[in-house]
Write a structure and sequence with these properties.
InterPro entries: Alba-like_dom_sf (IPR036882), DNA/RNA-bd_Alba-like (IPR002775), UCP030333_Alba (IPR014560). The relative contact order is 0.15. The protein contains four helices and four strands, in the order H-E-H-E-H-E-E-H. It is of the alpha+beta class.
Length: about 130
């Protein structure tokens, strides 16, 4: 068992799983799920990497634009590429477009998030009465 543990510790991974990466799908979750998740990741890590393949690229761009237009994020890096994906229905690999957008916090991110939290608390208090 100790050999397995040592082997795992010494394992070299070509692309490590990033704690601040969100892989966006345009079919699994609603748009604002990703917006809110990105906000949470930026609170925890100061930046977030949004990535998507194919048709989900529009969703990633929309999430990034919502965060930028609300004054919460600034673009740090945008990378595009194509990746080979195995298509079981055709039995051959096909290329898909890929985008990765790295967003960082704006200077007033924390104040905007605190103000939004305060607004939610006031609205919740009004609902009680």
């Amino acid at each position: 068992m100790e050999e397995v543990t040592e082997g795992v510790k010494n394992l070299a991974v070509t692309e490590p799983h990033k704690k601040n990466r969100i892989q966006v799908s345009n079919t699994k979750k609603p748009l604002f799920f990703y917006v809110n998740l990105a906000k949470r990741y930026m609170q925890m890590h100061n930046e977030v990497e949004l990535s998507a393949l194919g048709m989900a690229i529009a969703t990633v761009v929309t999430v990034a634009e919502i965060l930028k237009n609300n004054g919460l994020a600034v673009e740090k890096k945008i990378m595009t590429s194509t990746v080979d994906v195995n298509d079981e229905s055709r039995g051959r690999p096909m290329q898909k477009a890929k985008i990765e957008i790295v967003l960082g916090k704006t200077e007033n991110f924390d104040e905007l998030m605190a103000a939004a939290a305060e607004e939610r608390e006031v609205a919740a208090a009004e609902d009680v009465y």
